[in-house]
Amino acid sequence: MEKEEVLTSGGRRPVQQQRIAAGWTPSRRAQFLDHVAATCNVRAATEAVGLTQASVYALRRRDAAFAEQWRMALLAGYDRLEEMLVSKAIAALEDVPVGDPDKVVTGPISVEQAIRLLDRHQALVKEGTGRREAQLRATQAETDAMLIKRIKAMRGKLERRA
């Protein structure tokens, strides 16, 4: 089992190094971040490394570098999720098979679940604030127009590649 070195104090004694087998080791941190980037699911990521949600949130509060890595992993996950939805929309319109270029196993996810995750993500990173704020829901026409615009952009990108 991997061990992480930590500094401890014994009251009046000087600070000593101690090895512990549990906790957020560098490999557990990397595994957690990889899982979050693949799934956008913090609960599942903490279960995958065998630790608790409370411990990862505590680590995020006390370690700014880890907090930034977590944020970047979530952004990568949401980008992947959005790309997957657009690819599926294009494939549905053009009868083209959909493949995952990164070969990341994310498990089954419905379109509805993916859209809910993206809605949460957009609320968290609203441009200019980076904080969760109340947003108005788009109408069906606005949503359709946005999807059609993105599909046209993806088609153009595919045509330029060919």
Radius of gyration: 21 Å
Describe the global form: elongated
Number of helices: 6
The total strand number stands at: 2
Q: What number of domains?
A: 1
Q: What percent of the residues sit in helical stretches (DSSP H or I)?
A: 55-70%
As an assembly, this protein is single chain
Spatial order of strands in the largest sheet: 1-2
Averaging pLDDT over every residue, what do you get? 75
Order of secondary-structure elements: EEHHHHHH
Strand percentage: 5-15%
- Low-confidence runs (pLDDT<50, min 5 residues)? 1-6, 16-20, 130-135
- Helix/strand-derived class? mainly alpha
List the helices and strands and how they pair.
Elements: E1 4-8, E2 16-20, H1 26-39, H2 42-49, H3 53-62, H4 64-94, H5 111-124, H6 140-161
Helix pairs in contact: 1-2, 1-4, 3-4, 4-5, 4-6
Describe the structure.
By secondary structure, the protein is mainly alpha-helical. The protein has one domain. 61% of the residues lie in helices and 6% in strands. A two-stranded antiparallel sheet has the order 1-2. A hairpin with a 7-residue loop joins strand 1 and strand 2. The longest helix is centred in the middle third of the chain and has 31 residues, at 64-94. It is elongated, with a radius of gyration of 21 Å. The model is unreliable at 1-6, 16-20 and 130-135 (pLDDT under 50).
